[in-house]
Input
Amino acid sequence: WGYETKVATLNRTGRKMILGLVGKTLESKLQAAFTPISLQVIDESSQHQGHAGARPDGESHFRVKIVAAAFQGKSRVEQHRMINHVLAAELKEWVHALAIEAAAPKT
Output
C-alpha cells in the first residue's frame, strides 16, 4: 500500500464501490479512532452468499486495510484488539467476519 493520505472504499477487484450503512459506520469509526494515513474498507459479503453468518442483504463480511501511527510498536494481536475494540458494537450486531490488515507507517 502507498502511504499517502487516502481513504478508499474498494470492492474485491479494487474498483471504487458504495458502502452501505454498516460499511460506512466501520469506515467512520476507524477514521475517527485512528486518523489513518491509509484506510480501505472492502465489503466481501458477495463472496459469502449462502454461507453461515451471511445476511441476505449483505454487509456481513468485511476486510479492513489500515495504516496508522497508533499501531507503532504494537504487535499484530494488539493492533487487532484495538480495531476490534473500536468496532465492538458492529461486530456484535452486524459483522460476521472481519479480516484485518493493519500496519504502522514505515519510517
In short: The radius of gyration is 13 Å.
